[in-house]
Design brief:
- The complex is a heterodimer of chains A (about 325) and B (about 550).
- Chain A has twelve helices and no strands.
- Chain A has about 325 residues and is an all-alpha fold.
- Chain B folds into two domains: about 325 residues, D-Maltodextrin-Binding Protein, domain 2, CATH 3.40.190.10; about 210 residues, Dipeptide-binding Protein, Domain 3 (Dipeptide-binding Protein, domain 3, Roll).
- In chain B, the strands form six sheets. A five-stranded mixed sheet of chain B has the order 15-14-16-12-17. Chain B has a four-stranded mixed sheet with strand order 1-10-9-8, covered by helices on one side. In chain B, strands 4-5-7-6 form a four-stranded antiparallel sheet, covered by helices on one side.
- Classes of the chains: A mainly alpha (about 325), B alpha+beta (about 550).
- The interface between A and B is large, with 49 and 52 residues.
């Protein structure tokens, strides 16, 4: 049954990916100014623009460019950067692990912070602890992560002439320093997501705690920990897991700024530069990859439902 | 003729040296004078990640700046405490000497024994005249080279012998040597690197004859340069290693600078933006008490341009009214802590060529802020109630640019010109407005060149791509050609002053003021003085670290 469901979902994902490919291919080309104009900027001379456009293959009809690109993608070739001539696959190979590690750690921090606080807030609803937690969540939602990151970097420099680690240490040079450099940016990135997850966890758990079966559990004389963690939390987490899939997309967009602030050479910065330079193959490659990851993660989230609630069946 | 500078210029340059010596004690230059330079050490800089490494396939300053560490040019601009910022004195780099037998011929004698970096495929062979010819030929023939208009006057390059190159121009062009010396363009490259790799885009193609060699490139992270032991000037450079960090976030750069992680200011030419400087200077006094600083006018100049080929901007009274409505000091107060310089058509920063605004003759009056007179002029031009307009611009990712546009809109509104802002994304702006394709008015910066010709010829000559205001003024057209053909520096300066006076009177472009840069460097760095332009490597060539 699960295999059939999985197959069905994968088949449904194909049109999503095709539509996404059309969007990521078309939208950058609808922006005024192309890579050639940006390469030459104000210095275009004679027939330079036309000549360079021809050299880069940008003078072909757009549908031919699209099919050529899709054909290459199906063979695992995402194309070549118009600017650097390096292959997009090679560029992504360097950058994707950095963004994945940053995003993955951010999600982990978000969960580790949000769920315990959300549970505590629900269990101790309308107490001082709940008010503090809810206020903190509102602040977390309201304050942009780049602002927190800026303060975290600038204030220690002004006060003590010290900054957190800025720059990038490769894994091969120092595995410990490599992982450590992600902790602070991931924590900052995770805070905004944590605030949302915490509020949802609290709301869902409060609802579950009012259910009859929970009252029965209390009546049986079970300890608070068992009632909350074993009987209530699992059911309350289903919508939370759903929102995690959405948070992933949010975290990916957040990496663009956080990577810049902490000087991490990830995909976010790469995408940002590519958009400014109208480097179409790079924009297409990154977006297609991100779309694929998000589609896959949402599929995983759907599959997790059954683990959390055995009553859910796939058909 | 060896140089295009007169005795007067040389004396003036000498005066600059005296001036630098006079201000030296305040700049910490005294630390360098009389001390024996020390070899060694690492200097840490914040620079930019290049789009790629082929200087003929990009006009990006990010690539050009890096080439000043690794490559040499035929000529360069003198650097060091003897040169005051804004002055550009030619001297030989790979060329030991040069001469100009007639108006259109230049002969360069190359240094002997100059070796390429010991990297494959060039492997440290000797540089010859063929390399110079190859570089210039590629520069003018490469279709992706947007800077090749800088060599538009060049007709042919001939190898006379192993160490002599002859260049012939199509017509007299007195700025030719400045173009050759310009760090934006003419770094001498190795043929083998292009032939082996197809182009110079990859880091392994960065093989030059410059003072440092590229030792490592980490995309989006940084670069490392190490001293070239075979550099052609014995003993130089003094600094062993240059560590470059790519840092695209201003808060992070500021924090890193306060913490002592960068030895030079993190913005253009090793400066710090004045708004940032005001915020952190007290902290820096505590954290980095030996830091040195020097202020000099910026050559980054923005202007209002307009469709002078059609009403209402074809009426000089309307253009003058716009200039009178422009509160230049108000703009400086809002975006530059009140500090800046007024610009004629040549930025005031190029002090050898710009004319002071109060000497602009009739045109000087239009630099005054006088909205009442502006309204009167509009009324005389039959626009007593003003008129609607548009103002196209790009933000350039700069809050200063956005604030400037907002103020401009207010100033225009105050005299009845109701300009609708049209904000364009950078790519859209460059491909349309920048090339003169806009509705009525636009506002934006110009490329910060080091010579006056690039600020004047394109913007004022009919049919030039950069003639953004659609100027067609025979007087200016004639003056433009004349300044390009006047070899005598004093006479050329007079022609340039005449151009600036005429331009100020006509107000085809309404020039915004420029800020004043704050060059900042670590106290341990000796024999260094900042200047405008991309030549970071040149300015650090004879500098040394006293740590």
């Amino acid at each position: 049954m699960l295999r059939r469901y999985l197959l069905k979902r994968l088949v449904v994902a194909i049109p999503s990916l095709i539509i996404a490919s059309l969007i990521v291919f078309t939208l950058p080309r609808l922006l005024p100014g192309d890579a050639v104009q940006l390469m030459l900027e104000e210095k275009a001379y004679g027939k330079d623009v036309d000549d360079l456009r021809h050299k880069l293959g940008l003078d072909r009809p757009i549908y031919i460019q699209y099919f050529a690109w899709v054909g290459n993608v199906l063979t695992g070739n995402l194309g070549e950067s118009l600017w650097t001539k390096r292959t997009v696959t090679e560029e992504l190979g360097m950058r994707l692990p950095i963004t994945l590690l940053l995003g993955g750690l951010a999600i982990c921090f978000a969960i580790v912070i949000a769920i315990p606080i959300g549970v505590l807030s629900a269990v101790r609803a309308d107490t001082m602890r709940d008010y503090v937690a809810r206020s903190a969540a509102i602040i977390g939602l309201s304050v942009p992560s780049f602002w927190i990151a800026t303060l975290v970097i600038v204030l220690p420099a002004i006060w003590w002439g010290w900054t957190p680690h800025l720059g990038f240490t490769e894994f091969s040079k120092s595995p410990g320093a490599h992982v450590l450099q992600f902790i602070l940016p991931a924590l900052i990135l995770g805070i905004a997501s944590a605030a949302g997850i915490m509020r949802l966890t609290r709301a869902m758990l409060l609802e579950v705690l009012r259910q009859d079966y929970v009252r029965t559990a209390w009546a049986k004389g079970l300890r608070e920990g068992v009632v909350v963690l074993k009987h209530s939390l699992k059911n309350a987490l289903i919508p939370v897991v759903t929102i995690l899939g959405i948070q992933l997309a949010q975290i990916f967009s957040g990496t663009v700024i956080i990577e810049s602030i902490f000087q991490l050479p990830g995909m976010g910065r790469f995408l940002f530069d590519a958009i400014l330079q109208r480097d179409y193959p790079v924009i297409q490659g990154i977006n297609l990859l991100v779309v694929s990851i998000i589609v896959l993660m949402n599929l995983l989230v759907d599959l997790l439902y059954a683990v959390l609630d055995p009553r859910i069946r796939y058909s | 003729m060896g140089h295009d500078l007169s005795r007067r210029d040389l004396l003036k340059a000498g005066g600059g040296a005296f001036a630098a010596a006079a201000i030296g004690p305040h700049l910490g230059l005294h630390g360098a004078i009389g001390q024996t330079p020390k070899r060694g050490g690492t200097i840490s800089l914040r620079l930019w990640d290049p789009p790629h490494f082929d200087p003929h396939l990009t006009i990006s300053y990010k690539t050009n700046i890096l080439y000043t560490f690794t490559h040499s040019r035929l000529l360069k601009y003198k650097a060091g405490p003897g040169v005051s910022p804004g002055s550009f004195i030619l001297e030989g780099d790979l060329a030991e000497s040069w001469s100009q037998p007639n108006e259109t011929t230049y002969i360069f004698k190359l240094r002997k024994g100059v070796r390429w970096h010991a990297k494959p495929p060039v492997n440290g062979r000797e540089l010859t005249a063929d390399d110079v010819k190859y570089t210039f030929d590629r520069f003018v023939s490469e279709k992706g080279n947007a800077y090749r208009s800088m060599m538009a006057a060049l007709d042919k390059v001939e190898v006379v012998d192993k160490y002599t190159v002859k260049m012939t121009l199509k017509e007299p062009y007195v700025w030719f040597l400045d173009m050759v010396a310009n760090p934006m363009a003419l770094a001498i490259i190795a043929r083998e690197a292009v032939e082996k790799l197809g182009d110079l885009k990859k880091p392994e193609a960065v093989i030059g004859t410059g003072p440092w060699m590229l030792d490592g490139y980490r995309p989006n992270v940084g670069l490392t340069f190490v001293r070239n032991p075979s550099y052609f000037v014995p003993g130089l450079p003094y600094i062993d290693k240059v560590e470059v960090t790519v840092d695209e976030d201003n808060a992070s750069r500021m924090a890193a600078f306060i913490a002592g992680k960068y030895d030079l200011g993190w913005e253009a030419s090793g400066t710090i933006n004045r708004v940032d400087w005001v915020q952190i200077k007290d902290t820096l006094k505590q954290r980095r008490p030996k830091l040195q600083s020097l202020e000099f006018a910026s050559n980054q100049m923005s202007h209002i341009y307009m469709r002078t080929d059609k009403p209402p901007f074809n009426d000089v009274r309307v253009r003058r009214a716009i200039s009178l409505a422009f509160n230049r000091q108000g703009l400086l107060d809002a975006v530059a802590e009140g500090v800046g310089v007024l610009n004629p058509a040549v930025p005031a920063a190029l002090k050898d060529w710009a004319i002071p605004v109060d000497q602009l003759g009739e045109g000087a009056q239009y630099y005054k802020f006088d909205p009442a007179r502006a309204k009167k002029l509009l009324a005389e031009a039959s626009y007593a109630n003003g008129f609607p307009a548009t103002l196209s611009y790009a933000t350039y990712g700069s809050t200063i640019q956005v604030d400037s546009v907002q103020l401009l809109l207010k100033y225009l509104k105050d005299i009845g010109i109701d300009a609708k802002p049209i904000q364009q994304e950078y790519g859209a702006y460059i491909s349309t407005t920048f090339y003169g394709k806009y509705e009525s008015m636009a506002f934006g910066p110009q490329t910060p060149f080091l010579d006056p010709d690039n600020y004047l010829f394109g913007p004022y000559m009919p049919n030039e791509l950069k003639n953004q205001s659609h100027v067609n003024d025979p007087v200016l057209g004639d003056l433009m050609i004349r300044q390009r053909r006047t070899a005598d520096v004093a006479k050329r300066r007079e022609v340039l002053h005449e151009i600036q006076r005429h331009a100020a009177n006509q107000q085809y472009y309404v020039y915004a003021p420029s800020g004043v840069y704050i060059g900042v460097w670590d106290g341990a760095l000796k024999n260094y003085v900042p200047n405008l332009g991309y030549d970071w490597g040149g300015r650090l060539l004879a500098a040394w670290l006293d740590r």
